[in-house]
Amino acid sequence: MKKNENIQLIKGTFHPDDARYVLLGLIKYKINFHHMKQFSFEERFGQKDLPSEKRLIELKKSKQQIIELIESANKNDSLLKMEAVITIQLEE
After folding, report:
1. Rounded to an integer, what distance in angstroms lies between the CA atom of residue 53 and that of residue 33?
2. pTM value?
3. pLDDT of 45-54, one tens digit each?
4. 20: Cβ contacts below 8 Å, ≥ 6 apart
5. Taking Cα atoms as reference points, which of 48, 31, 91, 34 lies closest to residue 23?
6. How many of the other CB atoms lie within 10 Å of CB of 32?
7. Bridge partners of residue 84, in order along the sequence
8. How confident is the model at residue 1 (pLDDT cuts 50, 70, 90)?
9. Going by C-beta distance under 8 Å and a sequence separation of 6 or more, which residues neighbour residue 56?
10. Is the pLDDT of residue 65 over 80?
11. Cβ–Cβ under 8 Å, residues 32 and 59
12. Which long-range contacts (CB under 8 A, 24 or more apart) does 24-29 make?
């Protein structure tokens, strides 16, 4: 593997229902990940995992933005063009 990789995760035009399924599924997975991480941290150390707590707030805001965009697309009978690239860097 190279030191930097870009992986195309999402690319295409989606009906709002399909976009909702894909995007909210990703957000739900990330929210669950941080909830579990926070729970584990709190059980082990007796305190909150502040980075996960901060990330949860950001993810919940992103989720609301996605819902609003999808609702707008539905009202306007529009499709959603989406792209998501994941950049992975090896750190030493």
Report:
1. 11
2. 0.86
3. 999 999 999 9
4. 66, 67, 70
5. 31
6. 10
7. 10
8. low
9. 31, 34, 35, 38
10. yes
11. no
12. 24/63, 24/66, 24/67, 27/59, 27/62, 27/63, 27/66
CB neighbour class for 69 (10 Å; exposed up to 12, middle 13-18, buried from 19) = middle
Residue with tokens 């949860």: 56
Percent of the chain, pLDDT > 70? 99
Quote the CA–CA distance of 10 and 1 in Å, as a whole number: 21
By the 10 Å C-beta count (0-12 exposed, 13-18 middle, 19+ buried), 77 is classed as exposed
Which amino acid is residue 35, in one-letter code? Answer: H
Alpha helices in the chain (DSSP H): 16-45, 50-75
| Relative orientation angle of helices 50-75 and 16-45, to the nearest 10 degrees | 170
